[in-house]
User: What shape does this take?
Amino acid sequence: MSDLAAYLGFLAIALATHALIGYTLGQFLFDRPWAGLVGGLAADIDLLFLGMFEWPFIHRGITHTLLIGGLATAVVLARERRLGLAFGVGYASQLLIDTTTPKGVPHLYPLVETSFYVDLGTTGHSPGPTVAFWVLCLGLLWYYDHLSIPDRLSRSV
Assistant: This one.
């Protein structure tokens, strides 16, 4: 398999994982799964511009900051509270997972350009954690689907 094919396969799995985690959090916490899914993918909008710009408009640049995540969440919050909360928690989940990769995430840009990295001995995109995320998310979605309507309503924010 070529390096490009391997990279594209990795990227597809990473994006699907971010989407699933955002969807699950949006569904389980706020009953807004699609907002969570969009939030879980939003920071990676920068993948559309690979090689076109320089720092901070690169992958894991400005879109992977608390500033942009907060601004994007505020825009969605202005539309509807639970929609914004689901989007925000999806966005935050992506930043947290990406913080476990060696490249890290520049959470505090533009205050500092340092990328923050938490070494857990593995990354959030390694096979083991990826499988664990999928099993956990699919289990939570199955559980949520089997809750009665009154139980779902009592979980609403």
